Amino acid sequence: MYLIARVAELTSKLIDSLAKEGIKSACLPILQLKPLEFNSQELIKLIKAYDNLVLISPSTIRMINPIIATPIKPDLKLLLMGKSSSSYLINQYNYQVSYPIYTSGIQGLINEQLINSLQSYLICGSTIINQHLQNYLIQQNIRHHFYSLYQSIDLLETNMALVEQSLLTTNSKGIIIYTSQIAQSLVKCAKINTQINNYLHDNLIITTHSKISQVMLNNGFTQLIETKSPSTQDVLDTIRKLEHEPDTAN
What we know:
alpha/beta; 6-stranded mixed β-sheet; 5-stranded parallel β-sheet; 12 helices; 20% strand
């Protein structure tokens, strides 16, 4: 059994893919997304007012999909965090889509110079603004605007007993962590909960990005394997390999 530390709505594809391989998995209830009410026409006007639409996460894509399904403007450019999300939009729509090739996430956008100081950017995502991106845009004097589509609610503190029970009673081979926010939440709780702390020290942690790995390593959790990317296929490939190396997976 592998526990997937991710928003529940985004875990079904991986759970189904693993099940086809005969591998059990389950969602670990740590983070919940609460969609915010927004005015569609207001958002469309904002999109038209900027050169680029930046979609911070798969959840953002899912929520904004009904808005961009109808062509908004012919020269709209979409900027995404990684290949897997981009592939979906490229196949669905005729927009110009860019994403980091060699890495992923905000740092990938910056390192691969996908943010142009001569362009403007509307960034859609959570109520929690990415400070690294905001600081970079301000330093480069780039016109931008953050627009919140959802609120991220940390369930771990209120559901700590449930999470502890899930970790300790599922005969888990490891935990898959998808975001730095979830990693930080787990680390915070490990500092006050011995059972969670012991689990993270004693069991395999699969991360989907180097930033997540760094959060765990900085806090002394060293049994790590990092996937090539957060895509379902890359996570599946990593677990498939582990299943052929039983000593590593246990």
